[in-house]
Amino acid sequence: QMAEKDDKIICVTAAMEIGTGMSPFTEKYPDRYVDVGIAEEHAITYAAGLAASGFKPIVPIYSTFMQRAYDNIFHDAVLQKLPVIYCMDRAGIVGPDGPTHHGVFDIAFMRSLPGMIVTAPKDGNELRNLLATALNSGSNFSIRYPKDNCRIFDLDLDPIILDIGKWEILNKGTSSVVLATGSMVGMIM
User: Fold this and answer.
1) Which of 22, 68, 105, 140 has the most other CB atoms within 10 Å of its CB?
2) Predicted model pTM
């Protein structure tokens, strides 16, 4: 949706086109998709180079494999203040994919990076809004989401730029507060 209006958007992944759901994008924009093979570190450094050249790189990689590129995220993107968007699929426990694919550390390692924005959408509509916000932010921006079907997604909605650092109030009460992010929002609603 956003790539239709912005030819600076380029997706870079590390042998995860099908697993991260990039196939429709690659079919529509084959010249704006780069698969570096099983080389997450290279994907990040390549994306940083694209950002330095004025492009808007989006890097969809499984959460657990993003940790392989931690040094590259820090040295090649964050320290250089080059805006890269890290889309971390399979965040959390992923069941039959097994323990090597459980993405349970991305919040901790992304939060340790100076200036990194760390997000977790509650549904598909918020994922689209976070992606639009990331593209507009000019910052290093991580978006983590589970290997699961989303609770709510309307393909016909336009993306909305969100206020970074603000919580959305879904229900207002008087005696307690429950804070939830990502897929946990659906569990408490």
Assistant:
1) 140
2) 0.92
